[in-house]
Structure formats: C-alpha cells, structure tokens
Amino acid sequence: NAGVTQTPKFQVLKTGQSMTLQCAQDMNHEYMSWYRQDPGMGLRLIHYSVGAGITDQGEVPNGYNVSRSTTEDFPLRLLSAAPSQTSVYFCASSQSRGSEKLFFGSGTQLSVL
Amino acid sequence: GQNIDQPTEMTATEGAIVQINCTYQTSGFNGLFWYQQHAGEAPTFLSYNVLDGLEEKGRFSSFLSRSKGYSYLLLKELQMKDSASYLCAVFNAGNMLTFGGGTRLMVKP
Q1: Contact: B101, A40; criterion CB under 8 Å
Q2: Which of A10, B55, B58, B87 is deepest in the core (most CB within 10 A)?
Q3: Strand, helix or coil at B81?
Q4: Three-state SS for A17?
Q5: What are the DSSP calls for A36-89, one per residue?
C-alpha cells in the first residue's frame, strides 16, 4: 500500500518558470491538501479539496493553482515561479475533512533561483 | 485570526519526561492534533483531542483544556529516537487545520 506519493523529491527552477508537483493517494481519501513548510513558520495550507471536482483556497494560495479531476490525484501548479516560493511542499490526505488524521507524502524540496 | 504558540526548542535527557506546551487562539475549535516530524521527513500523526482531558497512548500522552486554549504533549521514558520536531495543529470552525511553528526536541544521552 503506497499511501501518498509525491513527485519530484527535489526541483530547482529559475524565476518565471512553471511546473507541476504531482500528488497521488491510493487510500480512496476524499480530502487532499497542499502545505508548504518554511523554517520557523510551520506548515501553511495552500489549497485543499474535499472531493473530485471541488477545490478551495487555504492560507497562502497566491501563485498556485490546483485541480482535482479524480479522487486519487491532486496536482499543484506553480504558474510563474518566484524566489519566495522556495520551500518544502507536502501533500496530505485524509478520509474526510474533519477530525481525521492526515497522511503526508514524503515532500518536495523546491528551490527557485 | 489564528494564533498557535509553542516553544521553539527544548532539550531533555534520555529516560526523562518532557512536556511540550501549545496555546492557541482560533476562530472556533473542532479539535487539536499533535504530529511528530523527524528532520528531512514528513509529519506523522501522534494524537487527537477534541474533549477536555488526557489521552494516553503508550509513552505519549496529550492533554487539552478548551477553556484555557491550552494543550500539552507528554513524552515519558525518552529515547534518542524521540529527537524530532513536534507540531501542534488546531482544526477551527472553518474546518481548516492550522499548524504552530513546531517544537524541536533534542534528547541527550
């Protein structure tokens, strides 16, 4: 059972480039989310989805897009990368939006030069 | 707004007991989580409290007081492998999970 699979593990971008971080889960979870983690600031919610076809903004959505065409996949798109988006990104899922524990992917270390 | 405070760093000795505190001010409350995160790894779930009181799970216990906006994580019989960051997170009325900055715990021999 793979759980939450996140790719790539590392990525270096130049300012202005675009890319997509992939996230897939095989637990049939309804709820999926993207967080970024910066030193001293904890995990901050970027976007989340409560089911296929439904997405919503978190605390820090600017500069990022998401879509949820299937239950399994929840990609995060950086439209025009900026140095301020240098961070570690985690995808997480849970059975439902509520009092359910989150299962995290292994993370993506992104550097924008 | 949301405000979750926890100490930045703590140090304890192997075999001892350590208490990591978390205070929160959020718009509504639907539960509090503790996660453990080893350096370079993803967070993993430790505990969940929604009612006041103590939840015990092996060497780890978590306490909640909703009236005081306060929780703590208690780690007993500390082991070297407990060296990690411990993240407090609150589920608010809007059903958004907000994390504190994390407490880095160093366990020394």
Answers
A1: yes
A2: B87
A3: helix
A4: coil
A5: EEETTTEEEEEEEEEETTEEEE-S--TTEEE--SSSSB--EEESS--GGG-EEE
* Chain A contact present for B29, CB below 8 A: no
The token pair at A102 is 């989150």
The total of other beta-carbon atoms located within 10 Å of residue A32's CB is 29
Residue with token string 């509520």? A98
Q: Is the pLDDT of residue A8 over 80?
A: yes
Distance in angstroms (rounded) separating the CA atoms of residues B70 and A25? 33
d(CA B86, CA B95): 21
Contacts with A109 from chain B: Cβ below 8 Å: none
- Per-residue confidence in pLDDT tens, chain B, 109 aa: 678 999 999 999 999 999 999 999 988 888 999 999 999 999 999 999 999 999 999 999 999 999 999 999 999 999 999 999 999 999 887 768 889 999 999 999 9
Residues belonging to chain B: 109
Name the residue type at position B35.
Answer: Y
Minimum Cα–Cα distance from B104: chain A residue = A40
